[in-house]
Amino acid sequence: MFLLTLLICCHAQCQERKLIIVDSLSNKPIAFAHIFTGNNNEGLASDVTGAVILKQGYKEEAITITHLGYYTKTLKKEVYNDTIFLKEKNTNLTEVIVQNKKVQTLGYTNLKKTRYITTYGENIILAQHIPNKTGAAHTLKSLNYKIRSKKKDSLLVRAHIYSVDPITKKPNKELLSKSIIYPVRRKKGTLSIDIQDQYIEMPSEGLFIGLEWLGENNDAAYGFTAGNDSSINAFVTLARLKDKIWLQSQANGSYVRASFGVEVY
Hints:
Oligomer: single chain
Structural class: mainly beta
Order of helices and strands: HEEEEEEEEEEEEEEEEEEEEEEE
Helix content: under 10%
C-alpha cells in the first residue's frame, strides 16, 4: 500500500509543472500575473514569488501570460521553459498641467450610509461605471473604494480603470499603464489611491473604476447601494470572473452599485 501510494503521488507530481514569471531585464519575480492554459479557460495567477503551478491533468498546450504594465506573451505547445520572461511596456505619458482647478468627487464613495457585500473567490475584478455627468474635460486625481476586510493579515488589491465599450457598455480597454497593488489591513473605510502621475483624462462617456481581489478567498467586502431601476443597467457594478466574462452583480434581486468613485480636477 505504501509503495502504491508513493507511485500515485509521484505520478501526480509528474502531471504538474511549476513556472516562474520574471521581469526580462531585472529578473525579479512578477507577482499576480494571469496565466491561461489551453485546457484551463478559468486561468491561474502567479504568487508573490512569481510562481504558478499548472495542476495535475494540464496539457502541453499554448499558454498566455498577461500582466498590467507588461506585454502579453503567448507561447505555443512545448516551446516554453520553466522560467518565463515578460517585457515591461515603455509607456510615454503626456503630462497635463493642472492649475488651481477645483477637485470634484464622481461616483458613489460619498454615500453617508454604506452597506457591504462579501466578495467571492480569488482574482475577481469588480468594476463600477462612473458617468461624466457634466461632459466637461477632467483629469483623474485619485481612485476611492469603500471596502472592509476581516483578515488579521494584509489583503492585497489591485486598481483598474477601464474605458467603456461603445457597443456592450461594459469595461473595455485598461487605461492604467502600470500595476498598482495596495495592502488593505483589517479595517473598514475608504481606500484612496493617488494616480495623478498617470495623467488620465475622463472621457465624455465616463469610465469604469475596478478593483481586483488578489490571492485566495480573502473574507473581504465592498460598499454598495442597491436599486431595481432597469434604466441603470449600463451603470451597475460588474464582476469579471476568471473566464473573462463580465456579469452584473446583484443583491436580493436588486442591481448593485459599488461605492467606488474617482476624484478629478
